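Incident log, structure service

09:12 report received: a user says their structure output differs between two submissions of the same chain.
09:20 pulled the input from the user's history:
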Amino acid sequence: MAGFLRVDKTRIVDGEGKEVILRGAGLGGWMTMENFISGYPGCEFQIREALAEVLGTQKSNYFFDKFLENFFGESDAAFFKSLGLNCIRIAVNYRHFEDNMNPRVLKPEGFKHLDRAVAACAKHGIYTIIDMHTAPGGQNGGWHSDAGTHIANFWIHKDFQDRLVWLWTEIAKHYKDEKWIAGYNPMNEPADPQHSGLVNFYDRVYAAVTAVDPNHMLFLDGNTYATDFSGFPDEAAIRWPNAAYAIHDYSLYGFPASPEPYARTEEQRRRMKRSYEKKRAWMDERGLCVWNGEWGPVYARKEYEGDAMDEINERRYNVLKDQLELYAKDRMSWSIWLYKDIGFQGMVYVSRDTPYMQLFKDFLQKKYRLAVDSWGADDKFVRDAYRPIVKLIEDNVPKEEHRKLYPYPVWTVEGRVARIARNTLIGEFLVREWAEHFKGMSEEQLEKVAESFKFENCVEREGLNKALREHAESLSMS
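09:34 re-ran on a clean worker, output below:
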């Protein structure tokens, strides 16, 4: 390989100045577990606490370590490379590296699995991007911040900010000589109500990282879930010279809440393009490098959508292909969400015949019916239960501007009710039920359940992978 990757105006280049287009996926649900990816309710810290109560700390730790061991390995990296892809964005949770009750002290096992994944990817010629998917206190109000609240406390407690700058310094020290790491993504989907706090954090983390590791580039998410750069400094190219700017380009047409079935009409494609161009406009106006850190549809499942599954998924694959076409024209690097899950969005997913999926078959049906997960949820079975709450707010807060609470418009009144009442409230009442599925299991049984996530026990999503492979092949010939 030709040295470390770096930013050259609008491009990412290698040490010889040759353009490198990163085409990859997010390794989510692994070192940052997420409810819709792994099948639990609520937040990761909640299920870890509950499982420790049910099994005891030793057995609980054993299960989660085996989960991490099996979720990603050599076979995953080899398959990923076979598709012609070259980069994996690894989502990590700060809790792997430090404890809230013992801050700024690195856990001895913190890098154990991350080192293994980076090495497996490097062996197969795959770059990695380290993505801090959760920050102390929560950088946004989503479940994936693993804070258990809709208030992003990271922005109102300086100590949380100090801890993350410290942690990134330690990560940069650890990986400063690893050329197969493309760079660092200091924060996933920040949601800073004041906007200025994010810029101040980026100033601090950029300075801290480059002081110990001048080689690696940074990928900086826009504010408000990687959609808003309006609060960024005009002199960003000078202030953060070796940085790309990350958008998350999810198209509404790829989700159950789509206003209409996607039929690839001229108007639908215009709207898709306009949404994408709007997200990257700030960078284009200033000649900056754009990276699409997350995008991609979700997919229907036979057990939930029945005979409509194939028709729905064909439309979703068309959304995927049309987005890829946009990105190819701009020679943009991207990372689709996501590599592996239990069947909703992943390039590969855990087989229905595995011990984990059999164990939670009925529980997952309940989660689907209650629309407990926010991501891509279809609330058709519970909509009537939550609509009165929305109406209560609308009737008693008559001024529309008073209902536009940050992060509006990403969170509307309906969206806020869904996240707080459905995802957070109902989710936490189901946590103990999830954990009790493991009651009485031996370590041997726990390992069998964890092995469900091994690549050999997964199914490939052929339509998605075919589109990605064909796109990679077309780029290699251009």
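09:41 both user submissions now match this output. Likely a transient worker issue. Closing.
09:42 reviewer note: The chain has 19 helices and 13 strands. The CA atoms of residues 155 and 197 lie 7 Å apart.
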